[in-house]
Amino acid sequence: MILWALGIGLLGVVGSFRIEAAGRAVAFRAFDGRTINALLTEADARPAPAVVMVGMLGRPKDDWQAVADRFAASGISSLSIDLPGTSLPGEPAALSRWNDDIRAAVGYLAGRPADVRPGAVGIAGASLGANLAVVAAAADPSVRSIALVSPSVDYRGVRIEQPLRQYGARPALLVASLHDPYAARSVRELAENPPGIRQMRWSDTAAHGTVLLARDPDLVRSLIEWFQQTLG
Q: 172, 197 in Cβ contact below 8 A?
């Protein structure tokens, strides 16, 4: 495995209840009034930096729980969310708007200053969640850092070259398996001529998205170190 370094206001909380020692279910409002259910896993020492975790199409937020537990043990809180749907909408523009739920999650964390350190919120996305994370971060300057696991230059019309340029000089970690050709090619293309810090992290494990994180624990450590460095 190789590492290369290249050069909203508070939303209404509608519910909260504990489901296990490691995390608790919370709910807050999307911009269109829907209820977003999420899993909040908190570091013991707070306020702490925090990361919104966004997964793959058709996969639940629970895919992130083992990652979230390791984040919390390392002093980083996290909020795992589901995508708005389990199948793709007909129009690429409608799919791109799914990033609004990520922005709402960022707003939810930012509205908890007693628990989340101001100015220390990032996003980690996997597969489609990685593409939507870029779109969300480009539109929200409060997002300080992102990590993209198995991103695509173009996921069913959600292209991220321009949003990543709009994201600007803020740091981005780009992760892919060497056995995942499109994701690996996308990582290389996205890291070319960046306006800011772009790091690439490769895995020899043949897997994609959150499955890659589950099969290659070293990548989870890389994510933790990345957010410790970039969120402070």
A: yes
pLDDT digits (tens, 9 = 90+) for 52-77: 999 999 999 999 999 999 999 999 99
User: CA torsion sign, 142 to 104 to 197 to 3?
Assistant: positive
* Other Cβ atoms within 10 Å of 222 Cβ, number: 20
Ordered by start, the domain boundaries in the chain are: 3-231
Q: What is the pTM of this model?
A: 0.90
Instruction: Give the separation between CA 71 and CA 76, rounded to whole angstroms.
Output: 5
Q: Are 223 and 124 in contact (CB under 8 A)?
A: yes
**Which backbone phi and psi does 78 adopt, to 5 degrees?**
-150, 155
Neighbours of 119 (CB within 10 A): 11
- CATH H-level, domain 3-231: superfamily: Alpha/Beta hydrolase fold, catalytic domain (3.40.50.1820)
Q: How far apart are CA 53 and CA 55, in angstroms?
A: 7
